[in-house]
Amino acid sequence: MNRWIIASIVLFLCASAHAWNIPDGFKELKWGMSVDEVLNIWPYRFMGPHSSSSLPGLEIFYEWTAEGTPKLAIGKVPLKDIQLYFMNRKLAGVWLEFDSKHWSTLKKAMLVKFGQPTDQKTSIVQNPMGASFQKESLFWASKSLTIIASRFGSTISSGFIRYLTPTLVSIFERQEQREAEETAKDF
DSSP of 75-104, one letter per residue? Predict the structure, then answer.
């Protein structure tokens, strides 16, 4: 996970008192549901769990689309990738990836659903050919949930939306701290 995402989460959790419409889950999934509950009620197929040796208790399930299996979408916007994050077998986060050409549609829908973000950032990014694009990131943060949405992710063709419960935020913060401590040993 990018360092700026972790830093932003911490900053906004501490600083934000802005009210927004905090969801208690994603679609029909509720935070804290067990792996079995989620996989039994969703018509989507997932591969997993993929466990992380560096993050004990964290399991990740990836969407797997077989012929005849419905593909998850937000409205009419198809998703490229879905990851369900479970901590100690309880739903703790959802990560979505979409084609960045759908950013405007998804941004409008998120503003309707969640209200005004607690923060937003813009920056200029370049592709390998040197073309410049405006990256926009929106943040909704509270003590019970953080949502991060960005027009671009690791490439300019894909954007992302991340739903992170405090449990997941804490795990990523600890991992980043351990990595920093390990890296610091090289100085």
Answer: TTEEEEEEEEEEETTEEEEEEEEEEGGGHH
pLDDT tens series, the chain, 187 aa: 455 555 555 544 444 445 677 889 998 899 999 999 998 888 777 777 776 656 777 888 877 655 555 678 899 998 888 889 998 889 999 999 999 999 999 999 999 999 999 999 988 888 888 888 888 999 999 899 999 999 988 788 899 999 999 988 888 888 889 889 999 998 8
Domain ranges of the chain: 3-22+30-166
Strand 158-164 relative to strand 25-26: parallel, antiparallel, unpaired?
Answer: unpaired
E strand residue ranges, 8-157: 25-26, 29-30, 46-51, 58-63, 73-74, 77-87, 90-99, 119-126, 132-141, 146-150
d(CA 58, CA 55): 6
Q: How far apart are CA 186 and CA 163, in angstroms?
A: 34
**Whole-model pTM?**
0.80
User: Which of 139, 135, 136 has its CA nearest to residue 119?
Assistant: 139
Q: How many residues does the structure list for the chain?
A: 187
Looking at residue 89, its amino acid is R
